Amino acid sequence: MESITYDRFSSASEIAQDEINHTAPKFLPELGRQNRKMYIISGVLALYMLILTMAVGIKLSQVSQEVADVTFSLKTIESSIKEASNPLQFEIPPLNPELIVQGPCEENWVFFKDSCYFQSTIKQSWQSAENNCIRKNAHLVVVNNLDELDFLSSIVKLQVSYWIGLVEKEEGQWSWVDGMDFKATEHYWDEGQPDNWDVIVNGEDCGQLHGRIRVEKRRHWNDADCTLSCPYICHLQFSLG
Ligand SMILES: [Ca+2]
Ligand SMILES: [Ca+2]
């Protein structure tokens, strides 16, 4: 009986052990595979969310830049329409109050050293500009020295060219409108000027204070087609006597 009991007990134990040995290896690998699957799915989802977030961020940045570009274009178009509605009108740039005083000059003229200067608010051909200055008992400005050139450079609008009192009556023969000897004064031609560039149509026989792209202390001269409409600067020497 003892042997039988022992055998039964032994058999039950073996069965239990057998169940442990056989059930566990079957269950654990299955659980591991499911966990790995979950980890992979979670990882893929996290990666997908990261890519989605980055894509949305980049798109928002692009849309923001496009909105800024469109806004800039609209402002440019608006400015062009205003200019086109009256091409002969010209807006004078704001004057620097530290440099500009009216002094003894009339209203809308500015005083520098012993002279008064007038910036036009309209664009005209060189001859019409000179005629308008004469009607004000003045002439288109004759630029005698660097101080005057730098003063004019400081009051005019960037990227705009202004008629001055310089004219080429015969090719190569430049003269000042007030009769001053051109050869006796310093010359401040811009680089590559005078180039008589528009030779086929009218030639370039009238002098300008040349427009610039960048802000620079000193503006130089350009020869241009006299029939072009440009703003201009009149000059009147002020006599204290
Ligand atoms: Ca010329
Ligand atoms: Ca030129």
Structure notes:
The chain is of the alpha+beta class and 241 residues long. The chain is built from three helices and eight strands. One calcium ion binds at residues 168, 171, 196, 203-205, 223. The site of one calcium ion has 7 residues, from loops.
List keywords for this structure.
four-stranded antiparallel sheet; 2 domains; alpha+beta; 3 helices; Mannose-Binding Protein A, Chain A; 241 residues; 43% helix; elongated; binds calcium ion
How many strands, what sense, and barrel or not for the largest sheet?
A: 4 strands, antiparallel
Approximately what portion of the residues adopt beta-strand conformation? 15-25%
Count of the domains: 2
CATH architecture of the largest domain: Roll
* General form: elongated
Low-confidence stretches: 1-10
* Span of the ends, CA to CA: 152 Å
Classification by helices and strands = alpha+beta
Note the total helix count. Answer: 3
Q: What number is the mean pLDDT?
A: 81
CATH topology of the largest domain: Mannose-Binding Protein A, Chain A
List the helices and strands and how they pair.
Elements: H1 2-85, E1 109-112, E2 115-119, H2 126-135, E3 139-140, H3 146-155, E4 162-170, E5 173-176, E6 206-209, E7 221-224, E8 233-237
Antiparallel strand pairs: 1-2, 2-8, 3-8, 4-5, 4-6, 6-7
This protein binds calcium ion (2 copies).
One calcium ion binds next to strand 7.
Describe what is shown at a glance.
With 241 residues, the protein is of the alpha+beta class. Helix content is 43%, strand content 15%.
